[in-house]
Amino acid sequence: MAIAKFLTKRIIAIIITTAVIIALSYILMYIAPGSFFNQQQVGQQAQTLAAENPQAFQAMMNDWKERYGLDQPLYLQIWRYIYHCFTLNFGTSFENPTTPIMDTLKSGFPISFILALGSVILSTIVGIPLGILAAVRKNTWVDYVMTTLSLGGQAIPSFVFAVLLMLVFGVLIPIFPISGWGSVQQAVLPIIALAVGNIGNVAQYMRSSMIDTMGLEFIRTARAKGVPEWAAVLRHAFPNSLIALVTVIGPQFAFTVVGTVWIENLFSIPGLGSLLNQAFGADDFPLAITYIFILCLLVMITNLLVDICYTILDPRIRLK
Amino acid sequence: MSVVEGVLQADLRPKPPASRRVLAWRRFARNRLAVAGLVWVGIFIIVGIIGPWVAPYSYTTTDYGSANMGPSATHWFGTDSLGHDMLSELLYSIRFACIIGFGATAVAFVIGAILGLLAGMMGGIVDNIIMRLVDLMFAFPAYFLNLILVIDLGRGILPIFISIGITQWSGYARLIRGLVLSLRGGEMVEAAISLGATKRYIALHYLFPNIIGNVIVSLSFGIPYALIQDAGLSVVGLGLRPPMPSFGNLVTTGAADMMGYPWLLVFPAVLFAITLLAFLFVGNGLQEAFNTKGASK
Predict the structure, then answer these.
(1) Taking the CB of the first residue and of the last residue of chain B, which one, N or C, has fewer CB atoms within 10 A?
(2) Which residues, given as ranges, of chain A have pLDDT below 50?
(3) Given an 8 Å threshold on Cβ–Cβ distance, is B144 in contact with A291?
(4) Fold of the CATH domain B19-52+84-290
């Protein structure tokens, strides 16, 4: 029963938080100077129409305002967006009034998802062995090099790695394409660029977690029983060190979500992040709110799942 | 001089115990990476101050006659597609990065410190409201809030560092609140009061030294984070408005021209990466030196 209570509480918190974030974002976008019609292309067309045929322009503007609820009071507009988001009825963007945002999401989301998932998998596969190696060789040069490298991975954001990777493996030694999406080769550099920081993070956590575990009594018992060192490390210490690693995944995922936005812009990948500039730069309210809704919800659900996993893996921790 | 004489002449009086600050510095100095980082950060700040005076050209100077030139004697780091001198662009970028990095962290710290102090001192409903706000800020990537704020406030230097500051305060608020709660009503303060210490004395000699280490460590991690946020805005085309150069702008435009003019990318990207690393090494060194845990962001 504890878990049902915990889940209800957390889900209600997620819903409230998401609603607050949508409301806050909408108000901030609403009070921003400039509007969608200040954009160069749209603005010119609108001005021409306004000059040639003021009545038609007025009719069009009224139509547009009614369609997006912009003629209503602010609180109703906010409510409209919250309601639409939670019923997954995102409507259409200002830019493309004929294409539902849902269609854009359907084409863009899988791409971003593959990128994020690929980077998480790669960072786990590479980061865990690196962390174990550093822990086993604690305070040797192997450990120092590993620790310094993983710090570097965390300090430098993915977009800097991305451009450097593009330069080395795309231009100087052209073995991978540096833009576009569709083939496996095109996914290699973006996923590596996204993963580098996470590898450092995973390796560092794995290292400290392993060092903690290796100092525990059950490892001493195992060694005293005559368990070979590799088995003590891999069969006894390793599974017990994994528990702490679960806590890294939450923040790491949030970081990766922002990372995909950068990477998609740099590699011209048609994922969710590629439309970000249009959404925010052009004051496209429906698109921007949808973005914020989807990405924030994803991050919060991941955090919830991480908490649940953690309690399953470590029974000492109770759900609150 | 023989060894015996040396021993005889040695000053055997007990030395006064080294102060906390000296001890921290000794621990910091032992970490070679941290010292190297500190040197780089120092140079970075000095260049940020004097850079624009020594820059050979202004960042607005365009020279189409010598656009897209490789590194040469007149343009050490080459020129971009508009004929901007890359060296000058970099010098100005360092200046703007300094302002934005330190400015944003200052804004974030002031907001966080005020709210954290309020939450810690007042308790009750005020604490509850402020901590829910902190939870809200931690619940979603602040980067998106940053994007909206930049649209609201504009894309100059001041608006950008204010908007980054507004999104980064929550960590400081949580830190300060925790410190206040751990010290307020603690045994140490109680002991000081019973010894007759004045409030001023307690604040200066008991509270401040206990807080300052944590705060410095967390600020030193906050600055590179602000720099990344700033550059991250440029990557999606919403950073410092061109022609103002910034690391984000230079890296992004450099990436677009990478095929033909790689030097436009290499210099800013590598310089930016080294700077972030240097800040991180300093932060780690400080963390070890002050022996704080959990103060990092």
Answers:
(1) N
(2) none
(3) yes
(4) MetI-like fold (1.10.3720)
